[in-house]
Amino acid sequence: MLLLLSQTLLLAPAEAQFTPAMIEAVTIHPPVAARFQCSEHALGEEDFVLDATAADCVVVRRTGGPNGNLASLYTGDGTRNEDWHSWREPLRVAEQGEDPWPARPPPPIPHSLEGGALP
User: Fold this and answer.
1) What is the DSSP-derived secondary structure letter of residue 114?
2) Is the C-alpha dihedral spanning 111, 113, 118, 119 positive or negative?
3) Domain map of the chain by residue range?
4) CA atoms within 13 A of residue 70's CA, in its CB half-sphere
5) Pairwise CA distance, residues 75 & 36, whole Å
6) How many CB atoms lie within 10 A of CB 59?
7) Tens digits of residue pLDDT in 23-64
8) Closest CA relative to residue 38, chosen from 30, 50, 46
């Protein structure tokens, strides 16, 4: 592994190897403006490293429970995409970044889990 890393560093362009002596500022913000919660995957649950180290985040609203004060992920029975609070929630992008999908219509997605499974 160390050998591969050293070869990668040797083959990298000179500008990619530059590291400033001091980073002046880093801006970190939540992925969405709405209230949300994240959970991580249990050890061994996912086969791929990127999936295993990622966190799943969903928008929540305090409308659940008998008194309406518990976090809920969806309204109704949750079988339709539109039931989920995360559905169509705008994601925040970096201030200097570019939107990778400018003005592109959303892909067709089934709206119902009738029969218990997506086609």
Assistant:
1) G
2) negative
3) 29-89
4) 8
5) 15
6) 19
7) 777 767 788 889 999 998 888 888 888 888 888 899 999 988
8) 30
Q: Do 59 and 36 form a contact (C-beta atoms < 8 A)?
A: yes
- Mapped onto helix, strand or coil, the DSSP state of residue 55 is strand
Q: Give the pLDDT confidence of 76-101 residue by residue, as tens digits.
A: 999 999 999 999 998 876 655 555 55
Give CA–CA dist 38/58, Å, rounded: 6
> Could you give the CA distance from residue 40 to residue 116 in angstroms, rounded to a whole number?
25
State how far the Cα of 25 lies from the Cα of 97, in Å rounded to an integer: 16
Q: How many helices (H) and strands (E) does the chain have?
A: 3, 4
User: What spatial distance separates the first Cα and last Cα of the chain, rounded to whole Å?
Assistant: 42
Residue 14 one-letter amino acid = A
**Please, how many CA atoms are within 13 Å of residue 106, restricted to the half-sphere of its CB?**
8
pTM for the complete prediction?
A: 0.55
Cα separation of 74 and 80, whole Å?
9
Q: What CA–CA distance (Å, rounded) separates 84 from 73?
A: 6
